[in-house]
Design a protein that fits this description.
Shape: globular
Number of domains: 1
CATH topology: Rossmann fold
CATH class: Alpha Beta
Strand order of the largest sheet: 3-2-1-4-5-7-6
Helix content: 40-55%
CATH architecture: 3-Layer(aba) Sandwich
Largest sheet: 7 strands, mixed
Order of helices and strands: HHHEHEHEEHEHHHEE
CATH superfamily: Vaccinia Virus protein VP39
Strand content: 15-25%
Bound molecules: S-adenosylmethionine
Distance between the termini: 51 Å
Structural class: alpha/beta
Number of helices: 9
Radius of gyration: 17 Å
Length: 229
């Protein structure tokens, strides 16, 4: 089963399981929001890569009432839920079904955001996406990727996975929840934090940093430089 079918199959139950399956939910998504511009009245164009049901866009939209959004995802069933979520503010939201590896990105983006999506791409496509996002951003724009990452060793990776299971179980995840999550994760291709920071730097981003880390969850960010005056 491909990624789109896997996510479409659990699209309706996706949101309710999030706080259990992302045990550091508040710190993780909150750190991603912290990277965004301080002026919340700005009319930003936000591009959400692998937007799914629109969870991250929803958090950003609540903080930036004048921002407009383009949500991209390969799974039409996930985007359908995002569409329903934002129906009352339809003029602020555009939707694009497409694969992050090849979809055309808009060219007037102030903030590119992503959560738990880019790890579905192989390494070379993650590196290429960093460059494409760089091109899509206006000077001064930010890219924040709240991501599932690989440990730097097999041992670290296994320990991160064990911790995730224990924390998710403690928050009420059932064995069925965990096995469905395992099934989805079997298709994942996560990369390490140092690899991903290097791809951001190579693409031309500055202020490249890991802004949050909790086991397999990390928030990676960079800013497109302003032209030299
Ligand atoms: C775990 S969900 C995350 C959704 C949302 N960003 C969130 O934080 O809740 C991963 C999403 O990435 C999407 N996705 C996976 N691979 C993709 C690809 N190659 N192109 C576009 N979207 C992809 C899936 O369809 C799914 O909606």
């Amino acid at each position: 089963m491909g990624v789109a079918e896997t996510f479409d199959r659990s699209a309706r139950s996706y949101d309710v399981s999030r706080r259990m399956l992302v045990p550091c939910f508040d710190g993780f998504y909150g750190s991603a929001l912290d990277v965004l511009p301080g002026d919340r009245t700005r009319t930003l164009h936000v591009l959400d890569l692998g937007a799914g049901t629109g969870l991250l866009s929803m958090l950003v939209a609540a903080e930036y009432p004048r921002a407009r959004f383009t949500l991209v995802d390969v799974a039409p069933g996930m985007l359908k839920i995002a569409h329903e979520r934002f129906a009352a503010q339809a003029e602020r939201f555009a939707f694009r079904v497409g694969d992050l590896a090849s979809v055309e990105l808009p060219s007037d983006v102030d903030c590119a955001i992503s959560a738990l999506a880019i790890h579905h791409l192989p390494a070379f496509e993650k590196a290429a996406l960093s460059r494409r996002v760089f091109d899509a951003l206006r000077p001064g724009g930010v890219f924040v990727n709240a991501e599932q990452v690989a440990g730097e060793t097999e041992q670290e990776d296994a320990a991160n996975h064990r911790t995730w299971r224990e924390e998710a179980r403690a928050l009420g995840a059932t064995e069925e929840d965990l096995s469905l999550a395992d099934e989805r994760m079997s298709e994942d291709q996560p990369s390490t934090v140092p690899e991903q920071l290097a791809w951001l730097s190579e693409a031309g981003f500055e202020e490249v940093a890991c802004r949050f880390r909790h086991g397999m969850f990390a928030v990676l960010a960079g800013r497109k430089p302003l032209p030299q005056s």
